[in-house]
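Our consortium's second objective concerns turning raw sequence data into structural hypotheses that experimental partners can test. To show how far this objective has progressed, the report includes one record in full. It was chosen at random from the queue rather than selected for favorable results. The single chain below, 315 residues long, was entered without modification.
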Amino acid sequence: MNVSTTGNEWHIGDVSDFIFAEALDTTATAGSLAITVSANPTLDFRTGTVTILSDTVSQIIAITQAGADSNTYYVPDGYSLVWHDEFDGSELNTADWTHEVKSSGWVNEELQNYVNHKTRSGTLVTEVKDGRLHITCLKENGKIYSGRIYAKVRQGWTYGYIEGRIKLPKGKGTWPAFWMMPVKFTAWPDDGEIDIMEEVGFHPDYVSSSLHANAHVHSNNTQVTHEMKCDGAEGEFHVYSVLWTDKNITTYVDGKLQLSYDNRGLGRDDWPYDDPFYVILNLAWGGTWGGMQGVDETALPATMEIDYVRVYQKE
């Protein structure tokens, strides 16, 4: 940046704390200024200033820095955003999201009751605030309540790159998940299931991805699955994603490969993944996996936070 003044000399005055400014090649009335900024650790824009002073004039230079967008590094070339929710409002968009309502024991022997955004007394199990979606599992009047929501449940998407930035809860008994099920569901596992991310509280910070179909299913221990350590998964945000085409499904954790499975041309029993699937976010409590080593109710309430969910498809 070139700088000039009408005075005999100039120098740098006040500088914002994330900015470093250095005077270069100065003469009495002109010179150049090198400005560097530290990496922005937040997702928000931030602004700062550099003040240039001489004996007769001062000038304030404004610096604007974009927020760190953790997803841009991971999105494959040739894909564009077709749907997203950044959770910037005050409530879920009911045109996009549907709550599941089911009593405890409905699936996997889980202990929670899924309700439509709040308990009978009005306590929220799903809440949009501070730019995030909060899904909270809690105990009230002797019952466990939590949230399970579906994105575009009647429409879904066929193929694409889908990702969410998520902070997982702590506590033995928690079972958070980010996954997908078929829009035209008739039977399980016939129609398939895509698990982008699951974690159980008794095995903290180990996240897994799985695929389920008739030819590979956990009930006979043939499921396609992979688990990896993700330091800070409980209590910190990480990006969980899937790249899904007609030839392959690959999942990632912060851009690192988790699981990859090819379409081997063996038919629908092995590859029921050519139909529309919709996105699911839920926080279960206990059950066949989450409760495998018991539950610790002192961990309640426990909250899963979602910064965003984004769906990209090939251009």
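The partners drew two points from this record. Residues 2-65 form a domain with the Immunoglobulin-like fold (CATH 2.60.40.10). The radius of gyration is 25 Å. Both points have been shared with the crystallography group to help prioritize constructs.
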